[in-house]
């Protein structure tokens, strides 16, 4: 591999131009393709199956360093293009590209399929506009053992490159529904027997009290809102309870991703306890 020469030497190549356009939402929606950058995202895309990974651009150095990933990608039948660093820089949306950029097919799941699976722990991103926050909450949901994530029509595009990067591969680990109106999401989850908890710093109920009272062992969906202004009153009104994360120190508040991690792990812990609905470590 050390003597290999880049095969896509011009940033004006048709393939490079097509890949670069996927940084824009309208082109992603039209082509139903998105960018997955870095070794972790590319590895997870290759493992996802279903011909999700369409093609991969890699520098010679990255192809040598991540030879195992290149092998996995070739095993899926995806095209692998060696490219010079300028080509990768033109496709990538990061300041310091890691030398691997994949093009993937959309992987979102219809909301009806999520409901049919009777999920026990769900994160609903109701008004999350920052892609970094959305991707990080998705990662937290994955780590806590949630069985689904729902992005409402008022939230950011799941396939925004920053959201994909922030998920660090978790996008490929659990079902994610997109574009669901918040009223429909809540109504569907309630009909599936899921309790709806809205996370809000001004919530009437305290997370510690919920845990102490033993009310969190059942199927639960956490609704998270915009970091700057929280959840609108009409969204709060849809929930079975509005819950605040207690602040025991002098910090004014928690950021969205941190609060989401605390809430999701609290539910995961309660569900693992005796009499809870399931263990997050179940296979």
Shape: elongated
Major beta sheet, strand line-up = 7-6-5-10-8-11-9
Strand content: 15-25%
Total E-strand runs: 11
Multimeric organization: single chain
Helix content: 25-40%
Structural class: alpha/beta
- Biggest sheet: strands, sense, closure? 7 strands, parallel
Amino- and carboxy-terminal Cα gap: 39 Å
How many distinct helices? 13
* Average pLDDT score: 90
Uncertain parts: 278-283
Give me the Rg, rounded. Answer: 20 Å
Element string (H = helix, E = strand): HHEHEHHEHEHEHEHEHEEHEHEH
Q: Could you outline the blueprint of secondary structure elements for this entry?
A:
Blueprint lengths: L13 H8 L3 H7 L1 E5 L1 H10 L4 E6 L1 H6 L1 H10 L2 E4 L2 H7 L8 E6 L5 H6 L4 E5 L5 H14 L3 E5 L8 H7 L8 E5 L1 H10 L3 E5 L5 E2 H6 L7 E5 L8 H4 L4 E4 L11 H17 L11
Parallel strand pairs: 2-3, 5-6, 5-10, 6-7, 8-10, 8-11, 9-11
Antiparallel strand pairs: 1-4, 2-4
Helix pairs in contact: 3-5, 8-9, 8-13
Plain-language structure description:
46% of the residues are buried. Helix 8 links the parallel strand 5 and strand 6. The strands form two sheets. The protein has a seven-stranded parallel β-sheet. A four-stranded mixed β-sheet has the order 1-4-2-3. With 283 residues, it is of the alpha/beta class. It contains 13 helices and eleven strands.
Briefly characterize the structure.
Helices cover 40% and strands 18% of the residues.
